[in-house]
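Researcher: Here's a chain I'd like modeled. Treat it as a single chain, no partners, no ligands.
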Amino acid sequence: MTTLMIFHEVDDVEHWLSSPKREELFGPLGFTVRTFVDPEKTNRVGLIVDVPDMETFQRTLESEAAAEAMKFDGVRPETIVTLVES
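Model: Modeled as a single isolated chain. Structure tokens:
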């Protein structure tokens, strides 16, 4: 497993938190996800994601399903920052 820390901005934090899209997209692939919010900046959120491998993660992020999920969740793709546990 590879652990990732991902930060990005969203249009509506409450909508993002309550969305089923993360589980629908990542769950069947064996990803586990923990969500975080920035108490200082209301539109910044974060995730800790355990992924089976980086290739699967990259392929998933580049998929049409991921684009649709991000749009539904109000994710601002240009703000995504991904860190890999070393």
